[in-house]
Amino acid sequence: MDADLDTLATALYVRVDDLLKSEPGRSPCRPRVGIAPKISDAELVTLAVMQALLGHASESRWLRYARAHLHALFPYLPQQPGYNKRLRALAATMNWLIGVLARDTSVWTDDVWVVDSTPVECARSRETVKRSDLAGWAEYGYCASHSRYFWGLRLHLLCTLHGLPVGFALTGAKADEREVLLDILHADSSLTARPAQIVIGDKNYFGAQFEAALPEAGIHLLRPARSGEAERPGARFFKPLRQTIESINDTLKGQLDLERHGGRTRAGVITRVWQRILALTAAIWHNDNIGAQIKRSLTAYDH
User: Fold this and answer.
1) In order of start, what are the domains of the chain with their CATH numbers?
2) 241-272 residue pLDDT tens
3) Residue 1 pLDDT more than 70?
4) Which segments within 133-191 are labelled E, that is strand?
């Protein structure tokens, strides 16, 4: 197989179609009597991944582009309201597909992970914050990496060193990163079934109770020493490996436009964030299957 968008789309569609046929319960429920959809769930998932890879943040503009350039791949395309409604219904399906595709790679078994959170801004003006449907979930937080306050959410990522997401969560901006990491690990038993799994985090992943809970889950935590602490093991590896998670976040924000998600409701934000994580996972899955040297390279798929 080649590293180009058409080949990735074809391979992804075939894989997703097979998965949904083998597990029909993963698709959104539909009434037995009614009009059959003209575009399948597998086609919609593939279309959503292509949208993220090509950098189209606007669904309306994306559908206009797809009608003009992708008619051979998608003979029928819904209107924007129908596309948006179908994608929101597929949010849980995309979440499941991320895990399935991740497990279908050679890097899933890596014994070193990196963990961090990154801001997902949802509004800037005070008036928008006051009338936003996300109020109560989104909140004000502080981003130390960019020395700025923001209003929105945080995307917590647990990834391999190749950038493959193995666990993720979307929370309020003030959520405790340690509690979220434990929730991610407890939500998927396969993540805690490995002996001596190493997780590298920053100084925020500290605390006697927290660090005592990780060995019970089979996790060995490496992090820089905080002020007043003695030097911790593995300190020489932190700087280069910490840049890995920053690079992964930059891929999501710089190439997959995470900060331009455009979601205005809880369901809309979740769908758009999962869409981008699925696009990253699908690219790594495809690169791994074709034997590409750099698993997280998206350059071949952005045009």
Assistant:
1) 110-261 (3.30.420.10)
2) 777 888 999 999 999 999 999 999 999 999 99
3) no
4) 139-143, 148-160, 165-172
